[in-house]
Amino acid sequence: DAIDFSDNEIRKLDGFPLLRRLKTLLMNNNRICRIGESLEQALPSLTELVLTNNNIAELGELDPLATIKSLTYLSILRNPVTNKKHYRLYVIHKVPQVRVLDFQKVKLKERQEAEKMFKGKRGAQLAKDIARRTKTFNPGAGLPTDKKKAGPSAGDVEAIKTAIANATTLAEVERLKGLLQAGQIPGRERKSGPSEDGEEEMEEDAVPNGS
């Protein structure tokens, strides 16, 4: 089975229910910068993962893929991480079950080179040094908060209640909803001059003269 989540605004590869039959997961053209832990528990049969054109920036962010033992095809093209030194050898070392990386078959020579590079204490330290991971992912973290703007004032609430109470048609209710979604308070959007809505209503109500 395959699932295509391409062209969305997904930021983290995580939160999957148990999908025993899923083999192909397409996640290209998103904003993924983190990969969740223990994905193998939810995706035990995953063999192909396409992460092309996302925001993965550090080699260490790829480490969770090592636990998906069935993973054999992996694409991380057009992610900042691919510009890191030793990128390909690091992935081959950390996710050895992958046989095709970025649509290129992993060669025996590459496996031997990766094994040599990350062998022993010096190799382990090198892997640790180049696998720096970004800070813990917290959705919404770092976004400015303004408690003063958390909700409408008492006067705004009264204006909203009045407008809703005076609404007599479905069209008017929809107009009020549109204003609220735009961040405007009904009754304050225009203080002078005829509104565009009023002009449109007049045009709709006008009956053309017969000739």
Count of distinct strands: 8
First-residue to last-residue Cα separation: 66 Å
Radius of gyration: 28 Å
Sheet with most strands: strand arrangement? 1-3-5-6-7-8
Which H/E pattern describes the elements? Answer: EEEEHEEHEEHHHHH
CATH class designation of the largest domain: Alpha Beta
How many structural domains? 2
Largest sheet: 6 strands, mixed
Output the CATH homologous superfamily of the largest domain: Ribonuclease Inhibitor
Average pLDDT: 77
Protein name: RU2A protein
Pfam family, one: LRR_9
GO cellular component, one term: U2 snRNP
InterPro entries: Leu-rich_rpt, LRR_dom_sf, RU2A, U2A'_phosphoprotein32A_C
Structural write-up:
The protein is α/β, with parallel strands linked by helices. It has two domains: 2-130, Leucine-rich repeat, LRR (right-handed beta-alpha superhelix) (Alpha-Beta Horseshoe), CATH 3.80.10.10; 147-188, no CATH class. The protein is 32% helix and 9% strand. The chain has seven helices and eight strands, in the order ββββαββαββααααα. The chain has helices spanning 39-42, 87-94, 108-117, 120-130, 154-166, 170-181, 196-205; strands spanning 2-4, 12-13, 24-26, 34-35, 48-50, 73-75, 100-101, 104-105. It has a six-stranded mixed β-sheet with strand order 1-3-5-6-7-8, with helices on one face. Residues 134-157 and 181-211 have low confidence and may be disordered. Residues 135-154, 179-211 are annotated as: Disordered. It is found in: Nucleus. It holds the Pfam family LRR_9.
